[in-house]
Amino acid sequence: MTTQGHSKTRFAPSPTGYLHVGGLRTALYCYLFARKNKGKFALRIEDTDQERFVEGATENLIKILNYFGLTYEEGPILQNDKIVEQGDKGPYIQSKRTEIYKKYAEILLEEKHAYRCFCTKERLEEMRKKQEENKQAPMYDRKCLELPESEIREKLKAKESFVIRQKMPYESIKFKDLIRGNVQFDGKMIDDQILVKSDGFPTYHLANVVDDHLMEITHVIRGSGVCASLSTVKSGQNQTFKKTGTCGGRRIYIGRIHKRSNNKFCGILGMESRGRRRKRNLYIKRIGGNF
After folding, report:
1. Average pLDDT in the 45-72 region?
2. Which of 59, 108, 190, 276 has fewest C-beta within 10 Å?
3. Sequence-distant (≥ 6) Cβ neighbours of residue 120 within 8 angstroms
4. What is the pTM of this model?
């Protein structure tokens, strides 16, 4: 697979533990695609899920990429065992970019593509329980979508906790996967995903759209397991950047790694036997040779 002109890929793992073999394969594809097309390869750390953050995981990710020779032009690197950044599109660690995400969240709120949701955990649990009883898909019922501005101001004044949800358009959402071809989803069947959590940190659905745009990513290579979430991502691109021109890259979703028994393979780097490590290294070399 080739592309004309400038190309730039990114590997954007979450530092929530050891890197899986599937993640390493994705990084390898991103690296090879960029090199084959004389483009750039970037590393971005998606650490907005602070509850699952694992100390030392980012350093481990960088060391693994270095071990396999997956060099990148932009992103965090280790110098004297300390994390520093290289590149002109940073910061490349999402927890350092919260002010940027707030700016775009406010744009979505102003243009009515997103709304504040003040529903409590208890209210949401009761809602989902009733939906299950009625054999309905578990989706937010948009109770807070029609709140009058005066009530929203009162809740904000009282410092009530809230999240920001994306208002999914009730229309067909289409995109082209460079492997799968044309893909589309019905917006009515997709939940109003949370863009900003109550702690002020963005979720994947907002942060990766903003970052891919601002970092000028041309091709996004990811595992097929997250393909379904792209409907939210694609809609977010259209809504967030409709005035400046949608960016965020062409999509390439690669299949999962399976065992010979056809079960999903789940190998964690750093927690393997010596024999499995040899097999994994051989597998990675074969991918590189066949690309």
Report:
1. 93
2. 276
3. none
4. 0.80
